[in-house]
Specification:
The protein is mostly helical and about 450 residues long. Among the domains are: about 200 residues, Zincin-like (2-Layer Sandwich), CATH 3.30.2010.10; about 60 residues, no CATH class. The protein contains 24 helices and five strands. Strands 3-4-2-1-5 form a five-stranded mixed beta sheet. Strand 3 and strand 4 form a beta hairpin. Helix 19 runs antiparallel to helix 20. The chain is globular. It starts with a helix and ends with a helix. About 45% of the residues are buried.
Length: about 450
C-alpha cells in the first residue's frame, strides 16, 4: 500500500474516532426489521391518502420500552418495545397510534440530535456492523461504531387531548386494516406488568404518555363504536414477528438471558441462540444453529446474512461473500444495506478484481440510499485501494457533506476536482458541492 493511500485511510479512521465520541444515540438498521415494519405500515395506510414511503422509521437500541414521533413524518421505536410486544398485532397497534399522531398533525420534538438525525447521526447497523467492525482491517475503529446508547430524555410530554385522539384514531386505522384493535389495550395493560427496574422514569412509555389505565378506557370507547374489529391472526406475519423478536433479543440481551428465555425446540430459539452464540464468541455453535435454519428454509435471506457475517468475523472472506451474495439473491429486491455489506466483504479480500467488484455494489448501495454515510466511507476506501485518489476524495467529500462537516467536505471537494475526469457525474457533482459550500465556508472562516 503506497504512502498516499495509507494516509488517506488513516484520515478516515481518525475522523470516525472523532465523530463517534460525539454520538448520543445508537440508531440501528436491519433489513429484516425494516421490511417487516414497512409491511405493517403499508397495511395500516392502505386506506389513507398517506404514502407509506413518506414515513421515516428509526430504530433505537434501548432497554426502555418507548415509541414516539418528531416533527414531520418520523417515527422512533425502541428495540425493547418490539421485544416486549407479545404479538405482531400489539406492535402494529403501537405503530397505528404513532401514525395517528402524524395524521393529526401532532408535532413532538426531542433533542437536536433526533431532529437532525438524518443528516448528522451516523447509523449503527445492528446486523452487519458487528461483522464489519471485527474484521482485521476494521478493528481500529470498532469502539467508534458501537458507541454510546444514551437516548435523550428531553421528550415533549404528550397532551391528554392529543393522546386520546391518537388512541381513538389508531382503533379506526386498525379496524379498517383488519387488525384486531383490542391489542392496543393489551399492550398498554402489559406495560403495567413490566418490571419497574427495567424502565427509567424519564424515558419509558408510561412517562411520555398518559397512564395506561386512562388510555384503555379511551380505547374501549372507540372499540364500542367499531363493532366489526375482531379479526383472525395472520399466521405468516406472526411467524415473521417472532423471528424478529428472537433475533433482537439475542443481539440486545446477554447470552445467559437468551438461554433463560429461549430453547432449541423451535426456529425462534435457534435464531436467538445463533445470534447470541455469535456475539458470545461461539462461532461454531452459531454456524451449527444457522445451518439447521437454512436447511429448513433455504430461501430465507436473513439466516444467510448472519452466516456471512460470522464468516467475515472469522476472516473467511470467500464464505462471507458466498453467503451474502445468496442473501441478496434471496431477498428479492435491491437493498442498500445488503449491497453495502457485500461491497465490504469484497473490499476486505484485498484482491484487485474483487475490490473493483466492491465498487459496483457500493455505488449501487449509494444509488439506493444516497444518505448511507458508511457506504460512502467504504467506497472511498475502495477507490483508494485501486489508487483512484480523486474519486476517493470525492466520496469523502460527499460523506462529510452528509454528516454536516461542511469545511472538510469543501476541502476534499477541492482536492477531488483537480483529478476528476471532466464531464463525468462525479465531476459535475463535485463542482456543485464546491459552489454550495464556497459561501458557507467563507462565512464561517471570517
Amino acid at each position: 500500500m503506497n504512502r498516499v493511500k495509507t494516509l488517506f485511510i488513516l484520515n478516515i479512521i481518525l475522523f470516525f474516532t472523532f465523530v463517534g465520541s460525539l454520538k448520543a444515540l445508537e440508531v440501528i438498521r436491519d433489513t429484516e426489521i425494516e421490511e417487516f415494519t414497512h409491511d405493517i405500515v403499508n397495511i395500516l395506510l392502505a386506506d389513507t391518502n398517506i404514502d407509506a414511503k413518506d414515513i421515516n422509521i428509526y430504530f433505537i437500541k434501548s432497554k426502555q420500552v418507548n415509541a414516539f414521533v418528531t416533527g414531520g413524518k418520523n417515527i422512533f421505536i425502541n428495540t425493547e418495545l418490539i421485544i416486549e410486544a407479545q404479538d405482531y398485532r400489539e406492535y402494529a397497534a403501537v405503530i397505528a397510534h404513532e401514525l395517528a399522531h402524524i395524521m393529526g398533525g401532532h408535532v413532538f420534538r426531542t433533542s437536536e440530535e433526533l431532529a437532525n438525525i438524518s443528516s448528522k447521526a451516523m447509523p449503527i447497523y445492528l446486523l452487519g456492523i458487528i461483522g464489519l467492525i471485527t474484521g482485521a482491517s476494521e478493528a481500529g475503529f470498532a469502539g467508534v461504531m458501537v458507541g454510546q446508547a444514551a437516548v435523550s430524555d428531553t421528550f415533549t410530554y404528550y397532551s391528554r387531548t392529543q393522546e386520546a385522539a391518537a388512541d381513538q384514531k389508531a382503533v379506526s386505522i386498525l379496524c379498517k386494516s383488519m387488525i384486531d384493535a383490542s391489542y392496543l389495550s393489551s399492550f398498554l395493560e402489559s406495560l403495567e406488568t413490566i418490571d419497574s427496574e427495567k424502565q427509567s422514569k424519564s424515558q419509558n412509555y408510561r412517562a411520555t404518555h398518559p397512564l395506561p389505565r386512562d388510555r384503555v378506557n379511551w380505547i374501549e370507547l372507540a372499540l364500542n363504536s367499531n363493532e366489526k374489529c375482531h379479526f383472525e391472526i395472520d399466521k405468516e406475519l406472526e411467524k415473521r414477528f417472532n423471528l424478529i423478536k428472537a433475533k433482537l433479543f439475542g443481539f440486545t440481551h446477554s447470552y445467559h438471558e437468551t438461554k433463560a428465555v429461549y430453547n432449541l425446540n423451535n426456529n425462534q430459539g435457534l435464531y436467538a441462540y445463533a445470534v447470541s452464540s455469535y456475539l458470545n464468541g461461539e462461532h461454531s455453535k452459531a454456524i451449527e444453529y444457522l445451518e439447521i435454519l437454512i436447511e429448513k428454509n433455504n430461501i430465507n435471506p436473513f439466516f444467510k446474512e448472519i452466516m456471512g457475517e460470522i464468516y467475515f468475523t472469522k476472516q473467511n472472506y470467500e464464505e462471507a461473500i458466498y453467503y451474502q451474495r445468496n442473501a441478496l439473491n434471496n431477498l428479492g429486491f435491491e437493498n442498500d444495506l445488503y449491497m453495502m455489506m457485500l461491497g465490504n466483504y469484497l473490499l476486505s479480500s484485498e484482491k484487485k478484481e474483487k475490490i473493483e467488484d466492491s465498487v459496483y455494489y457500493l455505488r449501487k448501495s449509494i444509488q439506493l440510499n444516497p444518505t448511507n454515510t458508511y457506504s460512502w466511507y467504504l467506497l472511498a476506501r475502495a477507490y483508494a485501494q485501486i489508487d483512484d485518489i480523486s474519486l476517493a476524495n470525492y466520496a469523502t467529500a460527499e460523506r462529510y457533506f452528509l454528516i454536516g462537516e461542511r469545511s472538510l467536505s469543501f476541502d476534499f471537494a477541492l482536492k477531488a476536482i483537480k483529478g476528476l475526469k471532466e464531464n463525468t457525474p462525479e465531476w459535475y457533482r463535485t463542482y456543485d458541492l464546491i459552489e454550495i459550500l464556497k459561501k458557507e465556508v467563507s462565512t464561517n472562516t471570517n
